[in-house]
């Protein structure tokens, strides 16, 4: 393990513009987004602290896109932490470029466009929003087809056909020689045209772990161009058929070692008994992306931690269970006619539907070691219009028209709240668990505003706390950091709910005690 410099990335201007800023040298391991295998993003013992942070000064600035003073500047923004390896740093930007700079001077070493320089027919990668994973002479990145597509109507002179807004070649993983910028190998982690790799890739030894999500929840409502105006309620895209997954590959060759889908779909691999498979009618169970940052590697336990989003469809039996819970007000309500050993509480696990959950996956086999669910039912896609989230649709009807926007692609009753996990879990070693106890703990946050602490050996919930009003575009998503005693996270109050000391939501200026954890 080598010592490297850490580089922060953020846009310091009022307009969205992409910049890479070298602030200060810190000795840290050369892992990718999470800084270490545990994803703690912690720099203990470094020179930046509450006494020195005010002394930081900009050393150099590298501009990724021309400053036109228009919204098209968003195409150059940097949405992930650059990777640092020796003298050099590597980062992706939202205009579809992978860039290598000298970290001491900001000098450009090389810059590669994904479409023009890194793609071949059948493997067209339009961009990436990953932190590159550095292994030897290789940079490992995953494609995210929506990066260019979502901006195609904002760029002067651009057309959807010119930028390929209506097509996708799946979730492509690229290994790039860090010296030359040339592609060493290409592999499709998923072939579904809506598949993407939003979260960064993690690795251990000669294995890499790729979190796969998809754009299908958007396509369900408006296709082929997912951001076309006005929304087309008669979309002919037949939703849904995409599933999230965690894919293990050989870092040197790109060979797929195993794949763990996070949803059963229609059970194409015959993992279920015929009796259980019959419960998937009428449309199966799809969706369940993994998108919030990179998977966490627990080398000691030989397992990888991920977290998942909502489903886009729901079997009738799952809908019936949720209706029974809502009618009775009993979260443990059941329905008649289920097979022996199956009830509404264990239905998801029996059917291998790992939605709205934190999971531990065996590093060597892809077997699910344990799963912890935040919600028992959450079937939603954009065709459903407003999520069933505490009446939010009536607050902001312009965002989610009511009633259902597309009945062909949203047939489930009830509609779910879209409250999946937007953060991959973090493993904290020897954490202060309160009452004089210390031990390992896995921490992750949900879009509903809850933060969970789980036992890494069993998935048992150690604690749970509600820190933020939930929201479709809010709650807890993406970044989270931790040290031995504290967990740090940002929140998004997307529904603009008021907070005061009398509510269950903690004021952002206060410290939050969580059974020994504080933030």
Sheet-strand content, in percent, reads 25-35%
Radius of gyration: 22 Å
Mean pLDDT: 78
Question: What percentage of residues falls in helices of 4 or more residues?
Answer: under 10%
CATH architecture of the domain at 1-210: Beta Barrel
Pick out the low-confidence regions. 1-34, 146-167, 223-235, 390-403, 505-519
Oligomeric state: single chain
Explain what the structure shows.
By secondary structure, this protein is mainly beta. It has a domain at 1-210: Beta Barrel (Lipocalin). The protein has helices at residues 114-117, 146-149, 160-163, 216-219, 274-277, 316-328, 347-350, 392-395, and strands spanning 3-4, 19-21, 28-29, 61-63, 83-85, 88-93, 97-102, 108-113, 133-135, 138-142, 171-177, 183-190, 195-196, 202-204, 207-214, 245-250, 256-261, 296-298, 303-307, 357-362, 368-373, 426-434, 437-445, 450-454, 461-466, 480-482, 487-489, 513-514, 517-518. The strands form nine sheets. Strands 13, 14, 15, 16 and 17 form a five-stranded antiparallel beta sheet that branches. The chain has a four-stranded antiparallel beta sheet with strand order 5-6-7-8. It has a four-stranded antiparallel beta sheet with strand order 9-10-11-12, with no helix packed on it. The longest helix is centred in the middle third of the chain and has 13 residues, at 316-328.
């Amino acid at each position: 393990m080598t010592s490297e410099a850490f580089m922060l990335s953020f846009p310091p201007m009022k307009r969205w513009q992409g910049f890479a800023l070298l602030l200060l040298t810190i000795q840290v391991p050369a892992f990718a987004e999470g800084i270490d295998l545990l994803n703690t993003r912690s720099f203990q013992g470094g020179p930046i602290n509450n006494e020195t942070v005010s002394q930081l000064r900009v050393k150099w600035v590298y501009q990724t896109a021309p400053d036109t003073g228009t919204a098209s500047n968003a195409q150059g923004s940097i949405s992930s932490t650059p990777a640092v390896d020796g003298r050099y740093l590597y980062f992706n930007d939202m205009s579809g470029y992978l860039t290598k700079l000298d970290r001491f001077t900001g000098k450009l070493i090389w810059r590669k466009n994904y479409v023009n320089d890194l793609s071949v027919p059948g493997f067209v990668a339009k961009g990436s929003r990953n932190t590159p994973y550095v292994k030897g002479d290789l940079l490992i990145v995953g494609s995210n087809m929506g990066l260019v597509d979502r901006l195609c109507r904002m760029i002067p002179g651009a057309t959807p056909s010119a930028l390929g807004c209506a097509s996708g070649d799946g979730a492509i993983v690229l290994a790039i020689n860090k010296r030359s910028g040339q592609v060493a190998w290409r592999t499709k982690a998923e072939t579904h045209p809506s598949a993407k790799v939003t979260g960064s890739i993690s690795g251990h030894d000669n294995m890499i772990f790729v979190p796969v999500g998809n754009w299908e929840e958007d396509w369900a409502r408006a296709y082929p161009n997912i951001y076309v105006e006005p929304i087309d309620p008669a979309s002919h895209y037949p939703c849904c058929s995409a599933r999230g997954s965690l894919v293990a590959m050989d870092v040197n060759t790109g060979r797929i070692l195993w794949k763990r889908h996070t949803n059963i779909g229609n059970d194409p691999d015959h993992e279920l008994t015929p009796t259980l498979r019959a419960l998937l009618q009428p449309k199966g169970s799809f969706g369940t992306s993994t998108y919030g940052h990179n998977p966490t590697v627990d080398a000691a336990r030989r397992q990888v931690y991920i977290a998942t989003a909502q489903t886009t469809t729901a079997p009738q039996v799952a809908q019936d269970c949720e209706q029974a819970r809502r009618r009775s007000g009993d979260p443990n309500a059941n329905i008649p006619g289920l097979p022996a050993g199956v009830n509404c509480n264990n239905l998801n696990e029996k059917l291998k539907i790992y939605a709205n959950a934190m999971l531990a996956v065996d590093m060597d086999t892809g077997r699910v070691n344990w799963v912890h669910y935040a919600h028992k039912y959450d079937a939603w896609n954009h065709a459903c219009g407003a999520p069933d989230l505490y009446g939010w649709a009536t607050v902001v009807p312009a965002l989610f028209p009511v009633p259902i926007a597309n009945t062909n692609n949203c047939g489930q009753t009830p509609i779910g709240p879209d409250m999946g996990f937007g953060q991959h879990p973090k493993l904290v070693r020897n954490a202060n668990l309160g009452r004089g106890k210390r031990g390992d703990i896995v921490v992750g946050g949900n879009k509903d505003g809850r933060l969970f602490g789980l036992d890494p050996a069993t998935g048992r919930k150690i604690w749970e706390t509600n820190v933020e009003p939930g929201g479709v575009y809010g709650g807890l998503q993406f970044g989270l950091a931790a040290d031995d005693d504290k967990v740090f996270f940002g929140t998004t109050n997307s529904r603009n709910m008021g907070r005061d000391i009398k509510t269950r939501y903690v004021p952002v200026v206060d410290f939050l005690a969580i059974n020994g954890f504080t933030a």
